[in-house]
# Entry
Amino acid sequence: MTATCSVFLFAGIPHSTTILLLWVFVAVVTIALLAMLYYQVRKHKRLSFEIDQLSGMKRHTVEHEMVLKAMKLVTWRLDAHTHQIVFDSDFRDAPDSYVPQPGITIEEFVKQFSAKDAPIIQKKLIDLCEGRTEEYHEQHQVKASHGDRMYWTESFATIAERDAEGKPSVIVGTAMRIDERKKLETELISARIKAEESDRLKSAFLNNISHEIRTPLNAIVGFSGVLQFAEDDEERAHLVSLIQENNDKLLKIFEDVVNMSSIEAGDAEIEKTAFDVDAVIRELIEEAKEHLNDRPIDLSYVCEKSPLIITSDPDRVKGIVNHFLDNAIKFTDKGSITVRCEFQPNNMLRISVKDTGRGIAEEDLERIFDRFVKLDVFVQGVGLGLPVCRSFANAIGGNVGVESVVGKGSTFWLDLPSNVLK
# Structure
């Protein structure tokens, strides 16, 4: 049939012309087939490229999600025109993390931030929306979803899309909890301050100890040299008493240093036993009278109960009260010193030493128990006695304190808890 049609088609046409037309027909068909083949190859390549792109996007989406999970981030989008914020993916593991309602405005969003941070964050986000800045990075505090607790967060944002006029249209951002980092920063700052304070205290210690040791040592050496030239027994006895007095001062300095060192090293031993605190205080009173040096001071003692048996460390209690007495005598020129042993309304036993001496300024009361604090640089001591008293009082379950008025005197006290009473 085809052959017949071909015969009829080319009937009446010269043979050479017929051959030419056939070649033209074959060429056109070949070109058409080649064009179709080329189109199919390009279409295949385009489809392969799109498939690779989709695979890559899927892979990047998975990787992106893994990064978000690993960093415990939350992502959000901000419409630069309406100022509305929407949180997308949230991989924060803290259940109290703040998640705003979708479509919340910047003004409402920052109300959950601390009063200090809210205006700063609001201004920076608006600057991003209006194109005044390209990026945003801040650390700030946010109120937790449950309760009034504040937590730390770190936020990043940048312009993701712009409109036809080149103005920002979409802002994207992330945020993460940084509570642990802030805690570590605080600890590092505290450690640095502590190290600086330790260095300052070391310098103060060396400065004080060199001066305080030199004074009694010079007296001991000087009076010892004069002693051999003393002609009568009275003068010799006086020099010996001066040497002994400075020897006691030197020994007291070393005892304070050793006690403070043992406390800081955790080697201070506490041995609790039953003893008569009334008898201990009376013994201290008699010893203190010998150091009044004929000054017009009335030294008295009042106790609600005698004997008064308690269970505690007698050496520590005695050391604390003795130091209070020494200070009272040191800073009182005339008047009275009264030692009391009485029960408090809270069933605590209070041992107090009240004097009518110089007194302590109110601003110095808080630091009087700190190490190396000397309110009067002309008075003997390295500033370790009261800190040692406080440490020993805490070690036996008690507490120390002071009340004072400048020009009227001071009252130092030691409180022992009721569970030490027998």
In short: DSSP finds nine helices and 13 strands in the chain. The longest strand covers residues 150-162. Residues 1-10 have pLDDT under 50 and may be disordered.
